[in-house]
Amino acid sequence: MKDLEVIKELPIIKTNFKDVKVSLKETIAKYKGIVVTEEGLQDCKATQKELAGLRNKIDDFRKTVKKDMEVPIKEFEGQCKELMGLISDAEQPIKEGITIFDNKRREEKRNKALELIQESIQAYQLNGKYSSNLTVLDKYLNLSASAKSVKEDIAQRAASLAKEQQDELKLKEIEKSTILATIESANANIKSKLKFEDFDRYINMNYPLDRIIKEINIRAETIRKAENPPEPPNEEIKPMDKVNGQKVIHTDPKPAQKQAKEVETLYFYELRVIANGENMLKLKKLVQSEGFKYETLNKGVVKK
User: How far apart are CA 143 and CA 134, in angstroms?
Assistant: First the structure.
Protein backbone atom coordinates (compact mmCIF):
# COMPACT_ATOMS: atom_id res chain seq x y z
CA MET A 1 0.00 0.00 0.00
CA LYS A 2 1.21 3.43 -0.86
CA ASP A 3 1.65 5.69 2.17
CA LEU A 4 -0.58 8.68 2.48
CA GLU A 5 1.39 11.83 1.94
CA VAL A 6 0.24 15.14 3.33
CA ILE A 7 1.69 18.52 2.54
CA LYS A 8 0.73 20.66 5.49
CA GLU A 9 0.45 24.38 5.13
CA LEU A 10 -0.41 26.04 8.37
CA PRO A 11 -3.18 28.63 8.03
CA ILE A 12 -1.93 32.17 7.98
CA ILE A 13 -4.29 34.72 9.48
CA LYS A 14 -3.20 38.31 9.28
CA THR A 15 -5.15 40.92 11.20
CA ASN A 16 -4.72 44.47 12.39
CA PHE A 17 -5.00 43.15 15.96
CA LYS A 18 -2.72 45.69 17.57
CA ASP A 19 -4.48 48.66 15.98
CA VAL A 20 -7.90 47.31 16.94
CA LYS A 21 -6.75 46.63 20.50
CA VAL A 22 -5.47 50.18 20.93
CA SER A 23 -8.68 51.61 19.47
CA LEU A 24 -10.83 49.35 21.66
CA LYS A 25 -9.01 50.43 24.80
CA GLU A 26 -9.59 54.05 23.91
CA THR A 27 -13.27 53.33 23.29
CA ILE A 28 -13.93 51.51 26.54
CA ALA A 29 -11.86 53.91 28.61
CA LYS A 30 -14.80 56.28 28.79
CA TYR A 31 -16.95 53.52 30.29
CA LYS A 32 -14.67 52.85 33.25
CA GLY A 33 -15.72 54.23 36.60
CA ILE A 34 -19.39 54.39 35.72
CA VAL A 35 -21.54 53.93 38.83
CA VAL A 36 -25.08 52.65 38.42
CA THR A 37 -27.60 54.94 40.09
CA GLU A 38 -31.32 55.16 39.97
CA GLU A 39 -31.14 58.39 37.97
CA GLY A 40 -28.63 57.02 35.47
CA LEU A 41 -30.07 53.52 35.23
CA GLN A 42 -31.37 53.91 31.68
CA ASP A 43 -28.06 55.34 30.42
CA CYS A 44 -26.19 52.44 32.08
CA LYS A 45 -28.42 49.92 30.35
CA ALA A 46 -27.74 51.58 26.98
CA THR A 47 -24.01 51.54 27.69
CA GLN A 48 -24.06 47.85 28.64
CA LYS A 49 -25.98 47.05 25.46
CA GLU A 50 -23.43 48.95 23.37
CA LEU A 51 -20.52 47.00 24.95
CA ALA A 52 -22.35 43.70 24.43
CA GLY A 53 -22.80 44.61 20.76
CA LEU A 54 -19.04 45.14 20.38
CA ARG A 55 -18.30 41.81 22.10
CA ASN A 56 -20.79 39.86 19.94
CA LYS A 57 -19.47 41.48 16.77
CA ILE A 58 -15.92 40.25 17.53
CA ASP A 59 -17.14 36.76 18.47
CA ASP A 60 -19.19 36.42 15.27
CA PHE A 61 -16.17 37.46 13.22
CA ARG A 62 -14.07 34.82 15.03
CA LYS A 63 -16.57 32.07 14.27
CA THR A 64 -16.78 33.02 10.58
CA VAL A 65 -13.02 33.00 10.09
CA LYS A 66 -12.64 29.72 12.00
CA LYS A 67 -15.31 28.07 9.88
CA ASP A 68 -13.58 29.12 6.67
CA MET A 69 -10.20 27.88 7.92
CA GLU A 70 -11.66 24.50 8.97
CA VAL A 71 -12.86 23.63 5.45
CA PRO A 72 -9.61 21.93 4.34
CA ILE A 73 -9.32 20.15 7.73
CA LYS A 74 -12.78 18.65 7.44
CA GLU A 75 -12.10 17.64 3.86
CA PHE A 76 -8.93 15.87 5.05
CA GLU A 77 -10.81 14.09 7.82
CA GLY A 78 -13.40 12.85 5.32
CA GLN A 79 -10.70 11.44 3.08
CA CYS A 80 -9.10 9.59 5.99
CA LYS A 81 -12.44 8.12 7.08
CA GLU A 82 -13.06 6.90 3.53
CA LEU A 83 -9.72 5.11 3.50
CA MET A 84 -10.43 3.60 6.95
CA GLY A 85 -13.80 2.33 5.66
CA LEU A 86 -12.08 0.45 2.85
CA ILE A 87 -9.80 -1.21 5.40
CA SER A 88 -12.73 -2.11 7.71
CA ASP A 89 -14.55 -3.80 4.81
CA ALA A 90 -11.57 -6.06 4.26
CA GLU A 91 -10.92 -6.55 7.99
CA GLN A 92 -14.44 -7.54 9.11
CA PRO A 93 -14.57 -11.08 7.58
CA ILE A 94 -11.17 -11.84 9.07
CA LYS A 95 -12.28 -10.64 12.51
CA GLU A 96 -15.40 -12.79 12.31
CA GLY A 97 -13.32 -15.84 11.35
CA ILE A 98 -10.96 -15.23 14.28
CA THR A 99 -13.93 -14.93 16.66
CA ILE A 100 -15.33 -18.25 15.45
CA PHE A 101 -11.97 -19.92 15.90
CA ASP A 102 -11.40 -18.39 19.35
CA ASN A 103 -14.87 -19.43 20.52
CA LYS A 104 -14.16 -22.95 19.37
CA ARG A 105 -10.93 -22.97 21.37
CA ARG A 106 -12.75 -21.62 24.43
CA GLU A 107 -15.35 -24.38 24.15
CA GLU A 108 -12.55 -26.94 23.94
CA LYS A 109 -11.01 -25.40 27.07
CA ARG A 110 -14.37 -25.55 28.85
CA ASN A 111 -14.81 -29.25 28.01
CA LYS A 112 -11.28 -30.00 29.16
CA ALA A 113 -11.87 -28.11 32.41
CA LEU A 114 -15.09 -30.09 33.00
CA GLU A 115 -13.16 -33.30 32.41
CA LEU A 116 -10.51 -32.27 34.95
CA ILE A 117 -13.22 -31.28 37.43
CA GLN A 118 -14.85 -34.73 37.20
CA GLU A 119 -11.48 -36.38 37.75
CA SER A 120 -10.86 -34.24 40.84
CA ILE A 121 -14.35 -34.94 42.22
CA GLN A 122 -13.67 -38.68 42.02
CA ALA A 123 -10.10 -38.38 43.29
CA TYR A 124 -11.13 -36.39 46.38
CA GLN A 125 -14.50 -38.19 46.76
CA LEU A 126 -16.49 -34.96 46.96
CA ASN A 127 -20.19 -35.32 47.70
CA GLY A 128 -22.95 -33.46 45.87
CA LYS A 129 -22.84 -30.44 48.17
CA TYR A 130 -19.14 -29.76 47.68
CA SER A 131 -18.75 -31.01 44.10
CA SER A 132 -21.30 -28.40 42.99
CA ASN A 133 -18.87 -25.69 44.12
CA LEU A 134 -16.15 -26.96 41.79
CA THR A 135 -17.19 -25.01 38.68
CA VAL A 136 -15.50 -23.77 35.52
CA LEU A 137 -14.03 -20.34 36.19
CA ASP A 138 -13.86 -17.66 33.48
CA LYS A 139 -10.07 -17.57 33.68
CA TYR A 140 -9.95 -21.20 32.49
CA LEU A 141 -11.38 -20.03 29.16
CA ASN A 142 -8.73 -17.39 28.50
CA LEU A 143 -6.85 -18.26 25.31
CA SER A 144 -3.60 -17.56 27.13
CA ALA A 145 -4.42 -19.95 30.00
CA SER A 146 -2.26 -23.07 29.88
CA ALA A 147 -3.65 -26.55 30.46
CA LYS A 148 -1.15 -27.07 33.28
CA SER A 149 -2.23 -23.97 35.21
CA VAL A 150 -5.92 -24.92 34.86
CA LYS A 151 -5.28 -28.46 36.09
CA GLU A 152 -3.29 -27.24 39.10
CA ASP A 153 -5.94 -24.69 40.04
CA ILE A 154 -8.75 -27.24 39.87
CA ALA A 155 -6.78 -29.71 41.98
CA GLN A 156 -6.06 -27.03 44.58
CA ARG A 157 -9.72 -26.02 44.81
CA ALA A 158 -10.79 -29.68 45.04
CA ALA A 159 -8.34 -30.29 47.90
CA SER A 160 -9.69 -27.28 49.78
CA LEU A 161 -13.29 -28.47 49.30
CA ALA A 162 -12.32 -31.98 50.43
CA LYS A 163 -10.93 -30.56 53.68
CA GLU A 164 -14.14 -28.61 54.30
CA GLN A 165 -16.14 -31.77 53.61
CA GLN A 166 -14.01 -33.81 56.01
CA ASP A 167 -14.32 -31.17 58.74
CA GLU A 168 -18.09 -31.21 58.34
CA LEU A 169 -18.21 -35.01 58.58
CA LYS A 170 -16.11 -34.95 61.76
CA LEU A 171 -18.41 -32.34 63.27
CA LYS A 172 -21.47 -34.42 62.40
CA GLU A 173 -19.89 -37.50 64.00
CA ILE A 174 -19.25 -35.53 67.17
CA GLU A 175 -22.84 -34.27 67.15
CA LYS A 176 -24.15 -37.79 66.54
CA SER A 177 -22.13 -39.18 69.46
CA THR A 178 -23.44 -36.41 71.70
CA ILE A 179 -27.04 -37.06 70.64
CA LEU A 180 -26.67 -40.82 71.18
CA ALA A 181 -25.18 -40.26 74.63
CA THR A 182 -28.04 -37.90 75.52
CA ILE A 183 -30.63 -40.44 74.33
CA GLU A 184 -28.94 -43.23 76.29
CA SER A 185 -28.97 -41.10 79.43
CA ALA A 186 -32.62 -40.14 78.92
CA ASN A 187 -33.68 -43.77 78.30
CA ALA A 188 -32.39 -44.79 81.72
CA ASN A 189 -35.52 -43.34 83.35
CA ILE A 190 -38.23 -44.34 80.87
CA LYS A 191 -39.68 -47.59 79.52
CA SER A 192 -40.64 -46.34 76.05
CA LYS A 193 -37.15 -45.88 74.74
CA LEU A 194 -36.18 -43.01 72.49
CA LYS A 195 -34.33 -43.74 69.27
CA PHE A 196 -31.84 -41.76 67.24
CA GLU A 197 -34.23 -41.90 64.29
CA ASP A 198 -36.86 -40.04 66.32
CA PHE A 199 -34.81 -36.88 65.89
CA ASP A 200 -33.82 -37.25 62.23
CA ARG A 201 -36.03 -34.36 61.16
CA TYR A 202 -34.29 -31.99 63.55
CA ILE A 203 -30.90 -33.09 62.24
CA ASN A 204 -32.01 -32.75 58.62
CA MET A 205 -33.32 -29.27 59.38
CA ASN A 206 -29.84 -28.36 60.72
CA TYR A 207 -31.09 -27.57 64.23
CA PRO A 208 -28.29 -26.46 66.59
CA LEU A 209 -26.98 -29.27 68.76
CA ASP A 210 -28.10 -27.64 72.00
CA ARG A 211 -31.66 -27.37 70.66
CA ILE A 212 -31.73 -31.07 69.70
CA ILE A 213 -30.46 -32.04 73.16
CA LYS A 214 -33.15 -29.86 74.72
CA GLU A 215 -35.79 -31.55 72.56
CA ILE A 216 -34.56 -35.01 73.65
CA ASN A 217 -34.78 -34.09 77.31
CA ILE A 218 -38.23 -32.53 76.91
CA ARG A 219 -39.58 -35.62 75.15
CA ALA A 220 -38.00 -37.96 77.71
CA GLU A 221 -39.50 -35.97 80.58
CA THR A 222 -42.94 -36.08 78.92
CA ILE A 223 -42.73 -39.87 78.59
CA ARG A 224 -41.49 -40.25 82.18
CA LYS A 225 -44.44 -38.27 83.53
CA ALA A 226 -46.87 -40.28 81.41
CA GLU A 227 -45.39 -43.55 82.64
CA ASN A 228 -45.28 -42.42 86.27
CA PRO A 229 -48.41 -40.42 87.03
CA PRO A 230 -48.71 -39.20 90.63
CA GLU A 231 -50.74 -41.56 92.76
CA PRO A 232 -54.01 -40.19 94.19
CA PRO A 233 -53.97 -39.79 97.99
CA ASN A 234 -55.17 -42.84 99.94
CA GLU A 235 -58.45 -42.38 101.81
CA GLU A 236 -58.19 -43.06 105.51
CA ILE A 237 -59.93 -46.27 106.50
CA LYS A 238 -62.17 -45.67 109.49
CA PRO A 239 -62.14 -48.17 112.37
CA MET A 240 -65.33 -50.29 112.72
CA ASP A 241 -67.16 -51.08 115.95
CA LYS A 242 -70.27 -53.11 116.68
CA VAL A 243 -73.34 -51.55 118.24
CA ASN A 244 -76.17 -53.92 119.02
CA GLY A 245 -74.52 -56.44 116.78
CA GLN A 246 -74.31 -53.99 113.85
CA LYS A 247 -71.06 -52.70 112.37
CA VAL A 248 -70.67 -48.96 112.82
CA ILE A 249 -68.12 -46.85 110.94
CA HIS A 250 -66.76 -43.93 112.89
CA THR A 251 -67.11 -40.72 110.98
CA ASP A 252 -65.53 -37.31 111.39
CA PRO A 253 -67.49 -35.25 113.88
CA LYS A 254 -67.39 -32.36 111.44
CA PRO A 255 -68.03 -33.99 108.05
CA ALA A 256 -69.23 -30.86 106.31
CA GLN A 257 -66.16 -28.92 107.29
CA LYS A 258 -63.79 -31.73 106.24
CA GLN A 259 -65.48 -32.19 102.89
CA ALA A 260 -64.96 -28.51 102.17
CA LYS A 261 -61.23 -28.90 102.78
CA GLU A 262 -60.79 -32.14 100.87
CA VAL A 263 -60.91 -31.23 97.17
CA GLU A 264 -60.41 -33.92 94.59
CA THR A 265 -56.98 -33.67 92.92
CA LEU A 266 -57.13 -33.49 89.15
CA TYR A 267 -54.25 -34.14 86.77
CA PHE A 268 -53.51 -33.07 83.24
CA TYR A 269 -51.06 -33.87 80.44
CA GLU A 270 -50.27 -31.68 77.47
CA LEU A 271 -49.30 -34.02 74.66
CA ARG A 272 -48.75 -33.68 70.95
CA VAL A 273 -50.07 -36.92 69.47
CA ILE A 274 -49.23 -37.97 65.91
CA ALA A 275 -51.20 -40.91 64.47
CA ASN A 276 -53.21 -42.00 61.46
CA GLY A 277 -56.94 -41.38 61.14
CA GLU A 278 -57.99 -44.72 62.65
CA ASN A 279 -55.88 -44.32 65.77
CA MET A 280 -56.99 -40.72 66.16
CA LEU A 281 -60.61 -41.93 66.28
CA LYS A 282 -59.69 -44.41 69.01
CA LEU A 283 -58.05 -41.63 71.01
CA LYS A 284 -61.07 -39.39 70.50
CA LYS A 285 -63.44 -42.07 71.85
CA LEU A 286 -61.22 -42.50 74.89
CA VAL A 287 -61.08 -38.83 75.87
CA GLN A 288 -64.81 -38.46 75.24
CA SER A 289 -65.59 -41.24 77.69
CA GLU A 290 -66.72 -40.56 81.29
CA GLY A 291 -64.15 -39.05 83.61
CA PHE A 292 -62.28 -37.03 80.99
CA LYS A 293 -62.49 -33.37 80.18
CA TYR A 294 -60.41 -32.10 77.29
CA GLU A 295 -59.85 -29.01 75.19
CA THR A 296 -58.45 -29.00 71.65
CA LEU A 297 -55.69 -26.37 71.52
CA ASN A 298 -54.50 -27.08 68.01
CA LYS A 299 -54.81 -29.66 65.27
CA GLY A 300 -53.62 -30.16 61.73
CA VAL A 301 -51.87 -32.44 59.27
CA VAL A 302 -48.23 -33.41 59.69
CA LYS A 303 -46.16 -32.19 56.75
CA LYS A 304 -43.59 -34.73 55.63
Answer: 21
